[in-house]
Amino acid sequence: MPSRFFSERRHILVVDDEPYIGRIIQLKLEDGPYDVELVSDGHSALSRLRGEAPIDVILLDIMMPHMSGLDVLAELRRLPHRAGTPVIMLTGKGQEADREQAAALGATDFLTKPFSPKKLLARIDELFTR
Q1: Which of 17, 42, 86, 130 is deepest in the core (most CB within 10 A)?
Q2: Is position 47 within any domain?
Q3: Phi–psi pair at 3, nearest 5 degrees
């Protein structure tokens, strides 16, 4: 059965300053059992994350203006109601130091751009089947 027919939809927050990347991710994930909200910077992400609305997974770009994804990750891990929320880091850099810092801050996974939307969907699906 295609995943779009599942009754329970999960909520994903995509934080990326490149609108076309966010839109590609949104289109792919909304084909499955996911509702996607897009925000384009770290300040907007934290504002959204401080609220109580459900968020099941966060896709977080590292390189953004005003506040990096690593800064956002550090802040969200201090929020009691978001401390355990899975975070997949997305980046065009892919340097080992970024991977190590993201892991130290509690990132669940790390994908380097360009990435396959199909692979991203598979990784997110895995989070809910563990």
Answers
A1: 42
A2: yes
A3: -65, -20
Nearest Cα to Cα of residue 49 among 9, 15, 88, 25: 15
SS3 60: strand
pTM listed for this prediction: 0.90
Can you give the pLDDT of all 130 residues of the chain as single tens digits?
344 444 578 999 999 999 999 999 999 999 888 999 999 999 999 999 999 999 999 999 999 988 999 999 999 999 999 999 999 999 887 688 888 999 999 999 999 888 888 889 899 999 888 6
Residue 33 lies in a domain: yes
Alpha-carbon distances of 47 from 52, 85, 95, 120, rounded to whole Å? 11, 16, 28, 25
